[in-house]
Amino acid sequence: MDAVSSPIEFLELLAREAAPVEFEGPLVAARAAGLPAERLDELEQAKVVALRVRALLERRRRREAELSGLYDTASDLAGLRDSDAVLRAIVRRARHLLGTDVAYMTLVDDERGDTYMRVTDGSISARFQGLRLPMGAGLGGLVAQTGSPYATANYPEDARFHHTGEIDAGVGEEGLVAILGVPLRLGSRVIGVLYAANRSARPFAREEVALLLSLAAHAAVAIDTARLLAETRAALAELSAANSTIQAHSASVERAAAAHDRMTALVLRGGGVEDVAAAVTEVLGGALLALDAEGRTLARVGEIDEPERAALDEAVVASRTEGRSVRRGGLWYAAVVAGAENLGALLLRPDEELVDADQRILERAALVTALLLLFRQTVADAEGRVRGELLDDLIARPVRDVAALRGRARRLGVDLDAPHVLVAVGDDAMAGSASVRQRVTSWATTYASTRGGLAAARDGRVVLMLPGENAGTAARTVVRDLSRVLGRPVTAGAGGSAVGPASLAGAAVEADRCLTALRALGRSGEGASSAELGFVGLLLGAVDSGGDREVARFLTDTVGPVVDYDARRGTALVKTLEAYFGVGGSLARAAELLHVHVNTVTQRLDRVGQLLGPEWQKPERALEVQLALRLHRLRGQQPGQ
Predict the structure, then answer these.
(1) pLDDT (tens digit per residue) in 570-626
(2) Element (H, E) at 180
């Protein structure tokens, strides 16, 4: 019996961590055994001591768990990589260590002046997870405002807090009753609130408040560490970017220096625009297109398309106005200028973005290109003067010292013993300012020299001596190309072909007469040879042209009534007259040629007699009519017909 009621049983209960109710067992057994009262008192005292020891051990175990949780939290902070993960771990530990249904954290929003939900654990309500608490509102708003912890065993019934409909609805949807909130402090500043909450009423002991405060301190450290880490990373990123910028700038400066040295060497050794384009693309990469003032390609490196003329003009004007390269889409434009004169443009499509130093390289390349073009233009002008003087001497009368002329031509690469045609361009091409005249002369010199010929400006006109035998084709080609350059039609007459210095002067006179005839016939803006105009061209060219007015008056006086009659009535009197004269005055052959009856021809000629008078078939009068018909046809004839 004594063994059953021995105090040692309480030690055994403590050893196996028995529940408090089991400590009543030895007393119940002692009473059942009928032990005296003094033994029962002794056992009661032993039970009380054992329960005290058990409570002490339980508190120590709980403290050990709390310290372990705090240690784990500190370890997480030491190896902080993801602040969100650390905050979630703190909230989870708060819920576990305090044994609550829910734990959560809110942070202060300085811009809006309230707090917002940052992390939750155990929450099931989306409305609760999206709550924002104004300062002073609800338990959390009061903690954030005062910086002091607050606890309530029954929040919905607690009148100490300022309840709002939104907060109460969120708390109610989550089903929270007991809530403990402690501040997250950084120095004297409250940055948020850490909560532990239960869905049933329960008090919170001072130890629990202290534990949550410790976790809140860790959370504040985690938040501040994350902020400092983010700032450090941002600073490192800025330093890295600055270092990259410095390195890129240093590299671009080195590229610019290398490009400057290379382009200087190009100028000194007499390089061309093609060499400049190659140098730029080797330094900057990409593709480059060099254009002259007319938009013609001077050099091309890589695959790059020419822009529309309007877009090109706008970009070049912008580059000239700003005094630097400009970007339009994927292309960079640099105007090539010399003073106020536009010489062209450089178009660059780079592989990578250009920095300022790279733009300077492109702009320096445009400057070097301008120098090369000016030098080339100076050389061309000097050569043009030499070529022009030779052509002047060749077409002058009388031609002197043929052997000397041949020697001069041979040095210029011109073979005077090959067939040549002479093309005279009308003064309509030279109309305008001195720059326009210079432009036409320069074009003619280049055009002729590239074909092994000569060109010169004479008496307000331009004369070209071109290799070949087809004078009419040469005149029309000159008209076409020069009209494109000027943007307006020009007129050109051609003579020849001629072989040898002695015959060139005659071909030049023939070209001048053809040009005069074209103007007299009203065919300005066309090109033709004297052979294509026939005897009318010789006739008109042999006399001083009084202008188109004289020809028009002659036509009106001679066949004007017939032409007007055809125009009004839609008849074919002019065609009938041409057929009649063309077959030597035979009515039958004229009818056959016109595919009509002889009587029809007779009736038409009778009408002609009524319009021109009865003497129109007399020899002198008939010659005038035939000449007028030929002039009428030539005035309306197109090149090549």
Answers:
(1) 888 888 888 888 788 888 888 888 888 888 888 888 888 888 888 888 876 776 787
(2) strand 178-186
- Residues, the chain, total? 641
Rounded CA separation 513/519 (Å): 10
Terminal alpha carbon distance of the chain: 149
Structure tokens at 533: 């105009």
In this predicted structure, what is the pLDDT of residue 79? 59
CB-based contact 98:87 (threshold 8 Å): no
d(CA 71, CA 73): 5
- Cα(9)–Cα(15) distance, integer angstroms: 10
Q: What digits encode the pLDDT tens for the residues 18-33? A: 888 788 888 888 888 8
**Is the distance from CB of 90 to CB of 121 less than 8 angstroms?**
no
Distance of CA 606 to the CA centre of its chain: 75
Q: How far apart are CA 641 and CA 636, in angstroms?
A: 10
Distance CA 279, CA 260 (A): 10
Give the whole-angstrom CA distance, residue 510 versus residue 229: 93
Residue 345 phi/psi, 5-degree rounding, is: -160, 155
How far is Cα 578 from Cα 557, in angstroms, rounded to an integer?
A: 18
The identity of residue 300, as a single letter, is: R
Encoding tokens for residue 469? 């035998």
Say if CB 469 and CB 477 are below 8 A apart. Answer: no
CB neighbour list of residue 161: distance below 8 Å, 6 or more residues apart: 138, 139, 142, 150, 152, 155
Measured distance CA(635)–CA(313) in Å, rounded: 39
DSSP 473-495: HHHHHHHHHHHHHHTS---EEEE
Nearest-angstrom CA–CA distance, 224 and 242: 26
Is the pLDDT reported for residue 563 higher than 50? yes
Residue 535 has pLDDT above 70, yes or no: no
Q: Judging by beta carbons within 10 Å of its beta carbon (0-12, 13-18, 19+), is residue 592 exposed, middle or buried?
A: middle
Read off the pLDDT of residues 59-111 as tens digits, 9 standing for 90 and up.
677 666 666 665 666 565 555 556 777 788 888 888 888 889 999 999 999 88
Could you tell me which of 43, 41, 37 has the C-alpha nearest to residue 25? 43
Q: Taking CA 352 as the corner, what is the angle to CA 350 and CA 355, rounded to the nearest 5 degrees?
A: 95
Query: How many CB atoms sit inside 10 A of residue 400's CB?
Result: 10
Token couple for 150: 């607050």
* pLDDT single digits (tens) 137-152: 999 989 999 999 999 9
- Which tokens belong to 243? 């270092």
- Distances in Å between the alpha carbon of 140 and those of 84, 135, 298? 21, 8, 77
| Token pair recorded at residue 332 | 């960079």
Beta carbons within 8 Å of 170's beta carbon, 6+ residues apart: 125, 127, 128, 130, 131
The three state secondary structure string of 326-388 is: EEECCEEEEEEEECCEEEEEEEEECCCCCCHHHHHHHHHHHHHHHHHHHHHHHHHHHHHHHHH
- Report the distance separating Cα 279 and Cα 301, nearest Å: 10
Give tens-digit pLDDT for 341-385. 777 888 888 887 777 777 788 878 778 877 777 766 665 555 556
Secondary structure (3-state) at 104: strand
Q: Are 576 and 605 in contact (CB under 8 A)?
A: yes
